Amino acid sequence: MSARQITGRRIGDAALAVVVGALVMTTAAFDDATTALDHVLIAVASAALVFHRAAPRAVLAVATAAGAGYVLHAHPGPLAALPVIGAVHTAARVGHRGLAGAASLVFLAAYVGTGPGTREVVERAALLLGWFLCAVVTGLADRNWQAYLRQTEQRAQEAERTREEAALRRAGEERLRIARELHDSLTHSISIVKLQAGVAVHLARKRGEEVPPALLAIQEASGEAMRELRATLQVLRTDDPVGTPRQLVDRARAAGLPACLTVTGEARPVPAAVDRAAYRIVQEALTNAARHAGPATVRVRLDYGDEELTVRVDDDGRADPARPSPPGTGLTGMRERVTALGGTLTAGPRPEGGFSVRARLPVREADGGRARDQAATAGEPA
Questions:
Q1: Residue 144, SS3?
Q2: Which of 22, 238, 292, 307 is the most buried (most CB within 10 A)?
Q3: 70 and 38 Cβ atoms separated by less than 8 Å
Q4: Strand partners, 359
Q5: Burial 223-235, CB ≥16 within 10 A → b, else e
């Protein structure tokens, strides 16, 4: 739960306590026999409702004791039971049915004890008994409804994980198929070219002839092509990053692209899928900047928040918001990777010029996010 949701709940709980307290206080104000002690008891019983989520049993005990003391001292009307009814409902909702019932009986006994034998008191007690029964029943119904919602959410998450695992498996099989095709066809052809060029160079040198520069170039290019192809096949067979975002920025700077990295928040280890996604996003964004931005400065920012890691890559290149270009394979892959982790990605020209990529990646515990760690590999940026 986010900090905003927690704050909202606390404000709602405080508002509930204020409303209940105001109703009971207003009713008590019309009774000339109400004393300062009665107002204190009302305030204590109502204020306890603020903590009904954190300590429902303690709230039930405090509200019942203060409410019973108030009715025994002041002999008020049925509205005096509102704080206790709220505490009973909360206790029943979290599963303390016995305690909720016992507190209801204690308060009713105190209320009946204010005027035994009078018809009016008996009628009011019967009315309050109905209120307390409704509080217990609605609390139990709310508990069952919340359990049903949790089960429904778990089933939906399980179905989503199953779909993601199937997509991951298909993507992995496709990568392996491509790797096999490249190895069986392209690697074989380049190996023959390299071998024949090497033999030709060897024979020329053996005869004492001058080796043609074109032949040397073919030999060197074929060797470089073999090394790059092996590296490509290695990437297809595994999706693990081979460095860190800082190393990517350093390599880009060494290659002539002005780039800098800023890290904010508390840098800490994150789940493997999040770390892998952040690396690939920075890698693809730097590659796109080097290819398309022209003379530009690239700023990479990693912001470690409590619940998410934000990756932002901005450049001041020649991208124009008035002429947006269609997203390429790289951006599509980034979006798929981020979506698989439950995050969001925005990419496009900036109003002041240049291009911006921003990804928000939820940071989950490694155990809770293990099922999704591999799902992020479904979107490999090209």
A1: helix
A2: 292
A3: yes
A4: 311, 345
A5: eebbeebeeebee
Q: In the 8-state DSSP scheme, what is residue 327?
A: P
Residues 334, 288 contacting (CB under 8 angstroms): no
Task: Tell me the per-residue pLDDT of 249-267, one tens digit each, with 9 for 90 and over.
Answer: 888 888 778 889 999 988 8
Which tokens hold the place of 292? 């398309």
d(CA 382, CA 372): 21
pLDDT at 13: 80
Tokens standing for 102? 């016992």
Q: SS3 for 332?
A: helix
Report the distance separating Cα 17 and Cα 47, nearest Å. 6
**317 closest CA partner among 299, 300, 295, 301:** 295
Which residue bears the tokens 């890691």?
309
- In 3D space, the residue among 102, 124, 103 whose CA is nearest the CA of residue 112 turns out to be 124
Helical axes 213-237 vs 119-181, angle rounded to 10°? 150
- Residue 74's H or E segment, with its range, is helix 56-74
Q: Per the structure block, which two tokens stand in for 301?
A: 């920012």
**Cα–Cα dist 68/79, whole Å:** 13
* In the predicted structure, residue 24 carries a pLDDT above the cut 70: yes
Pairing type for strands 259-265 and 298-304 reads parallel
Answer yes or no: pTM beyond 0.70: no
Task: Show Cβ contacts of residue 276 under 8 Å, excluding neighbours closer than 6 positions.
Answer: 239, 240, 241, 376, 377
Q: Using CA of residue 271, residue 272, residue 275, residue 278, what is the dihedral sign?
A: negative
User: What pLDDT is attached to residue 118?
Assistant: 60
Q: How far is Cα 361 from Cα 82, in angstroms, rounded to an integer?
A: 45
Residue 344 has pLDDT above 60, yes or no: yes
Count the residues in the chain.
382
324 contacts: CB under 8 Å, gap ≥ 6: 348, 349
Strand-pairing partners, residue 77, are none
DSSP characters over 315-326: E-SS--TTSPPP
Query: What average pLDDT score do residues 109-114 get?
Result: 78
Return the ∠ at Cα 368 (arms to 367 and 374), rounded to 5°.
80
How many other C-beta atoms are found inside a 10 Å radius of the C-beta of residue 123? 11
